[in-house]
Amino acid sequence: MILEFLKGKSVLVTGGTGSFGQKFIKTLLANSAARRIIIFSRDEFKQSVMASELSDPERRLRFFLGDVRDLDRLQMAFHGVDYVIHAAALKQVPLLEYNPFEAIKTNIIGTQNVITAAINQGVARVVLVSTDKAANPANLYGATKLCAERLMISGNAYGARQTIFGVVRYGNVVGSRGSLVQLVEDQRKTGTVMLTHEDMTRFWITLDQGVNLVLLALEKMHGGEIFIPKVPSMRVKEFLQTFAPDAKIKIMGIRPGEKLHEILVTPEEARHAKDFDTHYIILPEHANWPHRDKYDKLGKVLPHDFYFSSQNNTDWLTAESLKKLLGI
Fold it and tell me: For the whole model, what pTM was predicted?
């Protein structure tokens, strides 16, 4: 996979020391001729560790300390940048229920800062990494990410078509930092793993799939679209039984802000979405969106009663396919 569209470009990733950011940076180093690759994050230790672990013989990497809450710092970081991937976020659901304004400052105000800095500095393309929790949100984290999505889409009205904005939205990333895999790995050492509800289902996506979706959006978007991957579901109980077969499962009850099932495309969004082989694209609703005709002959129109939920998914992980996914 050679990413020709990145040749000679300068790419910046906010939250670049996170699980997604690290995988994305490694992909760019291995498969692109990007001129410069910038990691923007607020954690100096993680940047130091990342710099020591990555091979960069062509000296394309740059590390930029900063916080998306700081507009001035973003303005400096975005100078001369062609593409921005906005992956910085606070995302621990229970913690954010009790620290709501911290989530607002990073996930909402921080996103608006990214938009403002991108327009001011002439960045060509910006992609927001969002979450299934933004669709019909039931918690503070999801609500802030829904706001971030709407801000990013509306940013196209102010970029004078010189800066365009798009969104990718996906579910739980297998093996990412702080993911269920890590949590269960720690719990099973005690002989007991915790389950909030026996019927709970979730979408599952690998880091590679997440990176590929972002690259697809970055290359193909016209500005204003939300890209949704077609990914499998699995009951969390079956996940626990497969990953920790010898552990006892203890039911603890649904936590504050937690859904029984997640959704990636709502019924309302499906009315203005298109169906492609590997993904869906939600198009902006407003009638004067200038790129609607480009999608007239692309993709398929979804049925009037369609929605994409982890409960009604037609693609389900089995125990064997999960083991293959996890390499166990």
Answer: 0.94
